[in-house]
Specification:
The protein is built from 8 helices and 16 strands. It is α+β, with helices and mostly antiparallel strands. The protein has 2 domains: about 120 residues, D-amino Acid Aminotransferase, Chain A, domain 1 (2-Layer Sandwich); about 160 residues, D-amino Acid Aminotransferase, subunit A, domain 2 (D-amino Acid Aminotransferase, Chain A, domain 2, Alpha-Beta Barrel), CATH 3.20.10. Strands 7, 8, 9, 10, 11, 12, 13, 14, 15 and 16 form a 10-stranded mixed sheet that branches. A hairpin with a 5-residue loop joins strand 10 and strand 11. Helix 6 packs across helix 8. The relative contact order is 0.14. The protein binds 4'-deoxy-4'-aminopyridoxal-5'-phosphate. The site of 4'-deoxy-4'-aminopyridoxal-5'-phosphate has 14 residues, from helix 6 and strand 14.
Length: about 280
Amino acid sequence: MSRIAYVNGQYRPHRAAQIHIEDRGYQFADGIYEVMAVRGGVPLNVEHHLTRLRRSLGELRIEGAPGDGTLRTIVAEIIRRNRLRDGIVYIQITRGVATRDHAFPMGAAPAIVVTARRMKGVPAEVRQSGVRVKLVPDIRWGRCDIKSVSLLANVLAKQAAREAGAFEAWLVDDQGLVTEGSSTNAWIVDGEGNLVTRQLDNAILSGVTRRVLKELLVETGRTVIERPFSVAEASGAREAFLTSTTSQVLPVVIIDDHPIGDGRPGPVTRDLQHRFQEYAVMQR
Ligand code: PMP
């Protein structure tokens, strides 16, 4: 079955779907996006994703995008038309099409693309064994809280990780503090068994998985400390893991060449993986 994409009000065969060459997303990366997980044909955490999408649009002052009701309908329709069971839905909204000029154009309507794709997710063996991350300098801009399509620094960081045989890059600011991954949030477990992850500020994206996990953690009685942690702290941590829509909760067992704990996923991470999995099943 051929894939179907939504582009500016129309459902088109994926191969034939097009946007204008003067779309500001293409020329300036002047746009935002969201990635939602789909399990059993149901999109997960839609409310949280739409809240973040609305915030990103607001911060960039992109006006005139469809409301939440319309976006929910498009998401449901793109899942239906693609007969998607397990995978992701991608939503991108740019400031629209206009003659190239840096300043905001007058009267341009936002351009909207929604696509769906099958995705198996991280293989079970990798979930079990954990992954390696590579430390990479964080050279991104000052508004990483906006889920902007301007991802060049993230692309370079991920590529550096892949070339080093690592699953993800953990980005390190000029004070030696880990901000987040190139497409994931970063967590450690300290000596007292507390969870540590950076506070929400302009240096990181407010991950939906991070948010859900924080809520799930309330039941465990474990404390979540939201503060920056250093590379040294991460290397000496009892456990480490990363979170994202596509990775869920994934143990980090080596940072650069340094094993974390005994080099195997620890009990806290395992428990959280399990809890997150159950939560995802319950949402369906
Ligand atoms: N940080 C960055 C830079 C990301 O791109 C992502 C993935 N969207 C995340 C964190 C994790 O966010 P989420 O849990 O919403 O997928």
